[in-house]
């Protein structure tokens, strides 16, 4: 079902640049005050392909210089184009929030574009019009995929592991480390192993983990090119994707926690009144510095059941649970309906309007409550890969900010041109 193809990457020449100094996080992860540092870090930093230096200039940016920049850097030897198509295997070694060191190995490929209703590429969240308009301007100007969509596939038996591991061992072409301490290795994969991977994915659908805006932008660009009479074999018929096994040890799906902004914190009696059928256990927590370990000890055992934890900054962590399996329900939906809605009186419009903040690390949520920027932090257990595949196959999308896929896929490891032979 999924069409993955080798392609001839344009990539940095490690003899000319330090890859660690030119890769950047995805454009939607880079904070406004971080742009300047990436621009100044290296004159060939990949931030120049993704974002303007000043946020104030973004609305008027046409990105018209980017195609010339690609040509100039290629001519100068900073970037080089591989002679033969390949898959590009990338291993990421990183420290998990638990303190454990993990590895995730996946691969970059050209992904044949398909509308969502074709059930080949499945979304798990809704998108916004603004970011897609900006990315479309960039794609039209560059005629290249400069950052990748991140996709998950199902390989419960780890059939592809040996192929990817062999590429890392036998055909390395680059390595790097980023500001978060994530270490990267890049390698080539061609021939029969690449064909086996393509056959494996051809029998499966994939789920977008990150990059919904980029994928939908690529679909819009493809349709525009078709309407303009561009032949079907053009580079616009595919986009750049990074593929990883959702069931591999290093594929982390982390929870995104909620902070109630202004509604007062309920008393213990009010919690009990508005959450009938939920058990409530109080745990002493102090200043919130140890919140991650407290959640591992007191909330994680309730994974698979309706459960969450609440922290109002008083020094007491309240653990809530129901004595029943979650089944096919998503705890993020229950939280939105039965807690944020019934306990705090906030509807979907209020949530999207900013009444609730979303935090990827529990310590950040705890800190926000103690700083007075929120009244209650609501902590969740992470979703399971089964939840993601089940919901997307049913044609549904998850509530806003349901899960955080870690680590992110950086921009700058490989680029994909749309010209002839680019795949």
Give a verbal description of the structure.
By secondary structure, the chain is of the alpha+beta class. The protein is built from 13 helices and 21 strands. A hairpin with a 5-residue loop joins β9 (172-177) and β10. α4 crosses α7. It is globular, with a radius of gyration of 23 Å. The mean pLDDT is 92.
List the helices and strands and how they pair.
Elements: E1 4-5, E2 10-12, H1 19-22, H2 35-41, H3 66-75, E3 79-81, E4 87-95, E5 101-112, E6 121-122, H4 129-142, E7 144-145, E8 149-153, H5 161-170, E9 172-177, E10 183-189, H6 191-202, E11 206-210, H7 212-227, E12 238-245, E13 252-255, E14 257-260, H8 268-274, E15 279-284, H9 291-298, E16 307-311, E17 316-321, H10 331-341, H11 348-355, E18 356-359, H12 362-370, E19 376-379, H13 385-393, E20 403-406, E21 416-417
Parallel strand pairs: 6-11, 8-12
Antiparallel strand pairs: 1-5, 2-3, 4-5, 4-10, 5-12, 7-21, 8-11, 9-10, 13-20, 14-18, 14-19, 15-17, 16-17, 16-19
Helix pairs in contact: 4-7
């Amino acid at each position: 079902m999924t069409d993955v193809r080798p392609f001839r990457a344009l990539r940095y020449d490690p003899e000319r640049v330090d890859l660690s100094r030119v890769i950047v996080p995805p454009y939607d992860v880079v904070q406004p005050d971080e742009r300047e540092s990436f621009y100044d870090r290296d004159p060939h930093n990949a931030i120049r392909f993704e974002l303007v230096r000043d946020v104030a200039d973004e609305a008027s940016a046409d990105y018209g210089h980017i195609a010339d920049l690609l040509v100039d850097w290629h001519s100068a030897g900073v970037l080089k184009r591989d002679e033969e198509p390949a898959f590009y295997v990338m291993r990421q070694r990183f420290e998990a929030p638990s303190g454990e060191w993990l590895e995730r190995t996946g691969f970059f490929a050209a992904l044949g574009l398909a509308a969502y209703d074709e059930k080949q590429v499945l979304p798990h969240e809704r998108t916004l019009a603004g970011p897609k308009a900006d990315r479309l301007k960039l794609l039209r100007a560059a005629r290249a995929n400069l950052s990748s969509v991140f996709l998950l596939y199902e390989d419960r038996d780890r059939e592809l592991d040996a192929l990817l591991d062999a590429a890392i061992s036998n055909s390395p072409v680059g390595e790097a480390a980023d500001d978060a301490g994530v270490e990267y290795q890049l390698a080539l994969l061609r021939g029969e192993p690449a064909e086996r991977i393509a056959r494996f994915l051809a029998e499966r659908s994939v789920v977008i983990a990150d990059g919904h805006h980029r994928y939908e932008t690529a679909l819009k660009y493809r349709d525009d090119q078709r309407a303009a009479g561009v032949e079907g074999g053009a580079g616009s018929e595919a986009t750049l994707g990074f593929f990883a096994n959702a069931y591999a040890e290093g594929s982390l799906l982390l929870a995104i926690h909620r902070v109630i902004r202004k509604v007062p914190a309920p008393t213990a009696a009010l919690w009990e009144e508005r959450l009938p059928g939920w058990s409530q256990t109080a745990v002493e927590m102090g200043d919130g510095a140890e919140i991650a370990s407290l959640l591992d000890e007191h909330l994680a055992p309730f994974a698979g059941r309706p459960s969450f934890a609440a922290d109002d900054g008083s020094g007491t962590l309240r653990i809530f649970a129901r004595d029943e399996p979650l089944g096919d329900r998503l705890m993020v939906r229950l939280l939105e309906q039965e807690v944020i809605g019934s306990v705090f009186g906030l509807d979907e419009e209020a949530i999207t309007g900013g009444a609730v903040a979303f935090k990827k690390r529990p310590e950040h949520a705890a800190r926000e409550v103690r700083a007075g920027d929120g009244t209650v932090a609501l902590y969740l257990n992470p979703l399971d890969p089964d939840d993601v595949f089940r919901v997307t196959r049913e044609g549904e999308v998850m509530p806003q900010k349901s899960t955080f896929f870690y680590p992110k896929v950086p921009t700058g490891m490989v680029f994909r041109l749309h010209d002839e032979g680019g795949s």
